Description:
By secondary structure, this protein is an all-beta fold. Helices cover 0% and strands 54% of the residues. The chain has no helices and 11 strands. The strands form 2 sheets. Strands 2, 4, 5, 6, 9, 10 and 11 form a 7-stranded mixed sheet that branches. A 4-stranded antiparallel sheet has the order 1-3-8-7, with no helix packed on it.
Amino acid sequence: xxxxxxxxxxxxxxxxxxxxxxxxxxxxxxxxxxxxxxxxxxxxxxxxxxxxxxxxxxxxxxxxxxxxxxxxxxxxxxxxxxxxxxxxxxxxxxxxxxxxxxxxxxxxxxxxxxxxxxxx
Length: 120
């Protein structure tokens, strides 16, 4: 009952930047956490960053810490992932996700994914 629409993926050279957007609609009042995940071919799905619905980041993966920033625009119900200093190993499909539960860590709402490709 939460719909997520992603945008902002694309092709960029190493060292460049991209900003991903995730627009949430529906029962957004029930959202507890928003997160970005990514998955590259042959790799496990990786949790990249997590933010409270109120806009406080709570987690960054070690692989992106210092380069990526997650944020939220309350007025637009949109979560962003600013990606700076991109590396070829950042190439993956990036997914926006939302969860409503406070006890479990299951993300039950997912976007369709957006491809990020970083060339060397």
